[in-house]
Design goal:
Blueprint: H1 2-10, H2 20-43, H3 58-70, H4 73-83, H5 96-103, H6 117-127
Helix pairs in contact: 1-2, 2-3
Amino acid sequence: MLADCWRVVESTPGISPKEVATKLTHLYRCYGKLCVRTILLLTGKQKWSREKATWPSLAAIVEAFARDVQGLPAQEEADAASSSSGKVTDVTAASAATVAMMQNAHMELNQLQPGSFFWHVIMLFLLGM
């Protein structure tokens, strides 16, 4: 099954030189999704997938691959660009604290993190040990 789908990816007639990069990237992504979906189905770990959909059989996965291949790569890239959110910050003019907070988005400024060394020291002091 995977070999047949790979032949579909390799034999894409009628691609103009301008479209080669975008079409091939789209086809490789579709094949990658097919491989991941297949492995997750075979190992019974579909719940760990990034996708919320589960596939009942290999035939359903192949049908989804066929739909993905027929989809437009420009639409897929537009969806990815619109879904990614983030603000642009000039790192060269930013302070060291700003850069550190950008690298560690899970932390809050002037807050002790549970599990840190200082947090443990304070807890030991408060508990009187």
